[in-house]
Amino acid sequence: MNNFYYQIPTEIFFGKGQIEQLEKEIPKYGNKVLLVYGGGSIKRMGLYQAIYAIFARIGVEVTELPGVEPNPRIETVRAGVELCRKNAIEVIIAAGGGSTIDCAKVISAGANYAGDSWDIVTGAAPVTETLPVLAILTLAATGSEMDRFAVISNMKTNDKLGAFSPLFYPKVSILDPEYTFTVPKNQTAAGTADIMSHIFEHYFNNVQGAYVQNRLAEGLLKTCIHYGPIAYNEPENYEARANLMWVSSLAIDGITWRGNDVATSVHPMEHELSAYYDITHGVGLAILTPHWMKYVLNDKTLDRFVEYGVNVWGIDPALDKFAIAGKAIEKTADFFRALEIPATLREVGIDDAHLEIMAEKAAKGMKKAFYPLTSHDVLNIFRAAL
Ligand code: NZQ
Ligand code: ZN
User: Fold this and answer.
1) How far apart are the two ends of the chain, measured CA to CA in Å?
2) Which domains, ranges and CATH numbers included, belong to the chain?
């Protein structure tokens, strides 16, 4: 196991009715609030009204930034930064999925940066100071509620980039699984695929002796495999929604990622798909993952696939090793198909027009991956997934 540093400074309030915690949490950070949210799901489910009831009780000054897009745009971040400056915002409340929380995180850094917020996303400007972000999660998927990442898109340049900073951890996250009862089936499926992909990205590693991380990862994967379909079929099943919500946070917070460091593989490939075609992140991941698995399976990587097949899918360990690995990959693809996620890039409107440039951009950071991929390899995977 490698050396590592691990700290999660986010305070988590998990469970039914935890929204009420905001009444004592908001005043700790300030009185001038920016409320950031998406296209309106929080109004339809009554969360917006519940937040305003609390605002009324504690008497805060509220500015709103509605309309954060799925795959949040840099223009929306810039609009939020303007509002923070104009209204001397002291605390940001993000109510929504990963897109809303990510947007709020970059706004929180942009508010104290004199230049253009895109510099924060590219890493050209280090994050030195942020406004406090309090998150209310409504979709189990990205883990943004308890991690240090924020992913923002610039559709003019077809760039979707992940920024990270220890200052991006939300101060507080309210995780009430009931707020995810209204998540549509396709987003429940995509969210489950995203959570699983976060686990895969480090479960498939070459580090010796990271036993505890690997076993934890298998437990988290089994949780997704068990509860994903239940939440998909019974949207108001509290137990399923609660387990998915907590696994989303644990999948990317570092508990299975520290000490077994590898660069991610499928995420950079997917970010190119959404950067060029604005598709749902989890759908892109589900399409690519089985193809990536097939591509990287060889004598050297075989043992990890065997562990995956036996420990996660319960495949008979007495079978031939390549047969186990093949079955495990098949089961992964079948699982995504059962959640009715499209299985090919063409089904989500992607053709071969930009694959070469996308492959080149995606391969840039993959030298330290489980199986280092060149742009040629990525192109092969994209083509197989078409
Ligand atoms: O905008 P609203 O009206 O809220 O509707 C959203 C949106 O249309 C809807 N939704 C969310 N909660 C709902 C709901 N609808 C009904 N009931 C609810 N309770 O779902 C749609 C998708 O929301 P979004 O926030 O875009 O989804 P998600 O949480 O999957 O976030 C995706 C974004 O996060 C990035 C992705 O790349 C993408 O940009 N990621 C962020 C990461 C991070 N911060 O660590 C890591 C991930 O790998 C990922 O890259
Ligand atoms: Zn993801």
Assistant:
1) 37
2) 11-179 (3.40.50.1970), 185-385 (1.20.1090.10)
